[in-house]
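Target protein
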Amino acid sequence: MSGRASLLQAKLMIPGTDMTFVEYNADQELCYCWGCARCAQTPKEEASNMVRGCDPARVDNLARHASAKQHQAALQQLGFLPQDDAPPLEAPEVATLHIDCSTLASAESIMLQVDIRDMKLCVRFQACTEDLKVHRGVLGFESVCSNSHEEVMRSIQKALTRLCSLEGTLDAEGLEALRDRVDVLNGDEASDMQLALTELQQSTLCTPNLVPTMVTVHDVYQNAIAGKHSITSTIQHSGVVAHKFQQHCQAMESAPSTARRLKNLSLAKHRFDRVEKPLSRFCLYLDAFLLTAISVSASPTSQLRGRGQGFLEWVTEEKILLLGLLADLSDECLMFTRVYDHERYEASLMHSSCQAFVSKLRWLYVKEHAWELGYTAHVLEQLKPPCGFTLNGRARTIGGRSRVTPAIKARCMQALETLEAVFPSFELLACFHILNVAPNVDVRLEEDELAEEIRAHEAIARHEASQGRSTFDAWKQAVLRTSACQRAVREHFPCDNLWKLLTRYDAMVHGVVLPLPALSSCSVGCVTTADRACLTGENLFYAVKVLADVTKANQKDICELEQMCWALISDAPRKSSTSRIDKGVPRKRQCGTEVDFKKKRRMALTDAAEMVPIATTREEVTRLTEELIQADEPVLQELGFQHAKQSRNQIVAFLDGALTEADIPQGLEDVAQAFLEHRDHLKHQRTLSARAYSRVMRPDAPRLASRIIFLQKDDWANKVWARKLQLCARLEDATAILWTVALQGGVVVDCVYMQSQRAAKEQRTHTAVPLRHAAVFSSTMTGQQATQLLQRLY
């Protein structure tokens, strides 16, 4: 190869690598720079010859291209060359920390979120700047000694101090300004005091613990759905019974669903969807469940036969009707849970969703319209025709025209009304309700400056929302449009207060703390076993920050990089099959399915239920259920326990300094002092009990000087070692008086074991009611051995 050819080849190579930036297209017989083609963004760059391609014979053009600014910028963007003002590539996390520090310095509102797991505290931030842009990231990753409130606050302060000390010295003014901009601290159960702070509100009096105390509701749900031996569990876990159940489903004529096979009746208590599904399907396919139970009651297997007969003896029209009411309630709770089941829910809809949920429950159970639609109405229809069977030689019937009486309906409603309907106070959630610009929403505002600004921008925000924007984006665009206009327009559309509200709105909502186990597993999984020892302290924080600070802007690039790495490590991705003809075409809605039944029920309830203020509903339900609660002892005891627990948590929060002056009722200081004294008294009693237990389980060596001793042999009384002991003239065998020693108290010692090193294990101390002590020596021993034994015992 000539010198000129070597020089040209060197110019066509990417510096620092053995790769060339030239790529040949055989179809078009052109050479082009693949780096510039990939990084071309502007029309001018796309029109470049090196992007479109050039004649392979004109190598000089390619050589000159190596020094072009466009080519150098493309190599920098691809990471082959360092950028001019960029931080060093070996410390990208340090650069992101500097970016976060400058962002927080100019932020208008900041929310800090903390989460703790395995004594590691992760601090994340969510900030909104003056131009209404949201920034998120990891602020600190600290090791803590405990879950206490003081330790959490100390770790947060440590993370903020480290952020303000990136230049080597602490920026005290910047730290103080950063504290002032923090509007919300989301504990997310990072502290053990979060439980106390959560239960301070009246809304937590009504907890799931009340359900087991409602004997009627709990018994019905356990025997039919959730119990281990319930008919639903039997069908789910028995193939033979499941096959028989499918046959009965196919033969049903009154089912609201066209589906003739039910593959899933499983119950998962940690997932609310799996709690609602078997209950709703029990109501939809009630005839199939009853016929399956009748078939199981005649099974040759004793276990299945017992379950089927037990269910048929237990089931009545009232219990089936109560299950229908519970199915309607569970479906409403599921829909309410789904509102908050994703990260990007609309905060402006939170209050209206809660109000709609409460109003629907009021319409169903307080106004007693549950008999008109949904699962309850379907159960009533299924109970009209009778279902007869023979059980243990007796004829029984479930259902019939006159079997469901008004008295049964009243008792079913009364069973549900026993639960005190204490709904949460949504005043905090309602603060963003004024921003709701969804269609068909009428917002009535107070006459103040903020209301005037909202009213002035409301039409523009509604227009932006009609284009498919979210609530925040609609208001953001409205404010940006008016603030960018001329002075006369800006005076007609003031937005100072609205601007501040929007900054806090976006900083406070949609804040989600990334789970620490996922962060730790990702951090450890990205390095080899030999390097995992380096993931401690600051290195672990940097690894977590690089993995956690992923935004939508660079998410696509990261996915493309991951695809390239996957292709290099394993193989090229599999080619997809031929594209479907109906791809992108919406499917026709199927009628008569279980999903269609639920949609019809929910739409009918939404149209029929009247929206009522939450406070009015709470007062109405409390007035109706007050007498029932006083008559139900289990519910009354559970409510008393919840009230005592709430009071205790309030005292603990006061002692921890987590209450404001407005939250401290009169006399709480005296109660807290009495609480501390009572807690110290209980601690002292526990210490004494532990000492007494320790004396019983780990007794000391017996003291023989003050005790009566029975000798097994006569000549032992003449020994030297026996002169200081109180001997008894009655000489008996040691085993003959064990019962006497056990009743009157004493110590039984085997001298052979005492001579070994197992004295503490072989001696037995007996404490009797009369304060009389005795000791027994057994086995033969010399005088020297006895003297040594006595020295050990004393």
